[in-house]
Write a structure and sequence with these properties.
- The protein is 42% helix and 19% strand.
- The longest helix is centred in the N-terminal third of the chain and has 13 residues.
- The protein has a five-stranded parallel sheet with strand order 2-1-3-4-5, sandwiched between helices.
- It has one domain: Rossmann fold.
- By secondary structure, it is α/β, with parallel strands linked by helices.
- The protein contains five helices and five strands.
- The protein starts with a strand and ends with a helix.
Length: 118
């Protein structure tokens, strides 16, 4: 399985991608939403897609829910998990409204969410 991971924190991204690869999946990592959107669009136009997207919420270039909206505009069937260290934002509390399958705080529950959605 192929997982697109977007997080501006290098350590968090490394930890989460390690969990993904330990489970035998391919992790493709980006530090910002713009690059991730471009990558997703390129793959989608070639008829290739990602099995799952793992999205941070607070990023410097765009908030995770804005990136998710753009990814869902490319492919309404995109499967996106919100994984963030910030659970105080309205998006985290109402994740389904923004198109996320689930929301996990930090690394807590991340592995369980991966197991459930891959």
């Amino acid at each position: 399985m192929k997982v697109l991971m977007v997080n501006d924190d290098e350590l968090t991204l490394a930890l989460m991608s390690r969990i993904v690869t330990k489970k035998g999946h391919q992790a493709v990592c980006f530090f910002n939403g713009k690059s991730a959107i471009e990558e997703y669009r390129r793959n989608f136009e070639k008829g290739e897609s990602y099995d799952l997207i793992v999205m941070d919420l607070d990023m410097p270039d765009e908030m995770g829910h804005e990136v998710a909206r753009k990814l869902l505009a490319i492919n309404p069937l995109a499967r996106i998990i919100l994984a963030s260290t910030s659970d105080r934002h309205d998006v985290f509390k109402n994740f389904e409204k923004y198109g996320f399958l689930t929301a996990v705080h930090g690394n807590d529950g991340f592995e369980a969410a991966m197991n459930m959605h891959l």
